[in-house]
Amino acid sequence: MRGKRAKRRTVKVDRKYSNPVIARFICKVMQDGKKALAEELVYNAVEGGAEVVKEKDVVAFVSKAIDNVRPALEIKARRVGGANYQVPMPVSPKRQETLAVRWIVEASRKKSGKSFDEILKDQLVDSYKGEGDAVKKKEEVERMAEANKAFAHFRW
């Protein structure tokens, strides 16, 4: 490992629900520093998604959608004796959440045809139900880790 480890920043919470996960969604959706617009898009998406699945609590809806996208294992490249191996590693809870938020927002950005908050809402609803592009990405990552289980002894 080179250099110093990055310091953990304090987790900010969003204005409306005081939830750090929703705040992370807002920061991930934000482009060019337009936080007010990102907040509006995310709030519309999470409130609309909670209505669609008939969940009364918006925070519970978001956390279940995130939980369905969290990967348990991922692969990391390790160089051992001149060869590169794809070594399966367990994922820390903080990174699981980061990956889940990233995959949901990226899957939303790839789609077009509707407004972004509608697309994000659909993506969150799909994640809540355990389907959609973000869940496929999670399963793909876990399948790759499972396929490379033979190299697990290179983990340190």
Q: How is the CATH topology named? A: Ribosomal Protein S7
Structural category? mainly alpha
Roughly how much helix do the residues carry, as a percent range? 40-55%
Oligomerization category of the chains in this entry: single chain
- What is the N-to-C order of secondary-structure elements (H for helix, E for strand)? HHHEEHHH
| End-to-end CA span | 12 Å
Unreliable stretches, pLDDT < 50, 5 or more residues? none
Number of helices: 6
The largest β sheet comes out as: 2 strands, antiparallel
Polypeptide structure, described:
The chain has 156 residues and is mainly alpha-helical. It has one domain (20-154): Ribosomal protein S7/S5 (Ribosomal Protein S7), CATH 1.10.455. It has six helices and two strands, in the order H-H-H-E-E-H-H-H. It has helices at residues 20-29, 35-52, 58-67, 93-110, 116-129, 133-147; strands at 73-80, 83-90. It has a two-stranded antiparallel sheet with strand order 1-2. Strand 1 and strand 2 (83-90) form a beta hairpin. Helix 4 crosses helix 5 (116-129). The model has no long low-confidence stretch (mean pLDDT 90).
List the helices and strands and how they pair.
Elements: H1 20-29, H2 35-52, H3 58-67, E1 73-80, E2 83-90, H4 93-110, H5 116-129, H6 133-147
Antiparallel strand pairs: 1-2
Helix pairs in contact: 1-2, 1-4, 2-3, 2-5, 3-5, 4-5, 4-6
